[in-house]
Amino acid sequence: MTTEQQTHVPTQALRIVLVDDHAIVRHGLRSILERESDLEVVGEASTAAEAAAVVERTRPSIVLLDLKLSTAADTEGLDLCARLTQRHPDLAVLVLTTFLDDSLVVEAIQHGARGYVVKDVDTTELLRSIRAVARNESAFDSHAAAAMVRSMRVQPLRPKFTERELNVLQMLAHGLSNREIGGELYISETTVKFHVRNIMRKMDASSRAEVVYEASKLGVI
Predict the structure, then answer these.
(1) In the 8-state DSSP scheme, what is residue 24?
(2) Which of 44, 51, 174, 186 has the most beta carbons within 10 angstroms of its beta carbon?
(3) How many alpha carbons fall within 13 Å on the CB side of residue 10?
(4) pLDDT (tens digit per residue) in 29-71
């Protein structure tokens, strides 16, 4: 068992549904994920309709979602992401795609995704991202993070943050968990949660991924 697994193994395996229109991609992902004792692939789908049905039936904790699910549209996955997260608020959607248009990263977050990685990501980073979104944390690979920053066009009014909140924001941007942030700042995990809630309230954000995006846009991080 890897150090990553020892740190993040839940009481039950994380249930994952794979949504990609290419069977060979789904097969490869399943092969990688099922080597991990804390991950379980409980379903697959190649279309939006199949995905909705599989998620309804299997009730996974995570969906790995490609944005292109048919030849008719390149970003059908965005609408599916919105539908799935609205119907299943606790569901974590991690976009895994070949597309890296700057605006798509932002749109994915706005449609409910907790993270965005491209398909050339290495296995270690993919596994880290899956476990991060399962903890309700944001997950972006370096390509997606750079695209998100490039997409910023305007500078809205910046909320007033305390020095501690700015410290927490910086660590959220680096993907640290509440426990890890507490360890770095020598404060309790409960105190970290308090600061994260305040930051989300000030930024009118509904997720940690949205906090990171908004903070980048404001030039806070």
Answers:
(1) H
(2) 51
(3) 13
(4) 999 999 999 999 999 999 999 999 999 999 999 999 999 887 7
Residues spanned by the domain of 202 = 163-218
Cα dihedral 98/136/111/115 (nearest 10):
-20
| Residue at which a domain ends, from 109, 125, 150 | 150
Specify whether the CB–CB gap between 17 and 54 falls below 8 A: yes
Q: How far apart are CA 157 and CA 38, in angstroms?
A: 42
**Please, what is the angle between helix 23-33 and helix 123-134, to 10°?**
80
What radius of gyration do the chain's Cα atoms show? 17
Tokens of 187: 């404060």
- H helix or E strand, kind and range, residue 62: strand 62-65
Q: Is residue 155 a part of any domain in this protein? A: no
Q: What is the 3-state secondary structure (H, E, C) of 167-184?
A: HHHHHHHCCCCHHHHHHH
Question: Helix 163-173 crosses helix 189-203 at what angle (to 10 degrees)?
Answer: 90
Please give the structure tokens belonging to residue 150. Answer: 């490039």
Judge if pTM exceeds 0.85: no
Q: Give the residue from 207, 215, 196, 214 showing the smallest Cα distance to 91.
A: 207
CA–CA distances in Å: residue 214 to residues 37, 95, 105, 149, 163? 35, 19, 13, 10, 18
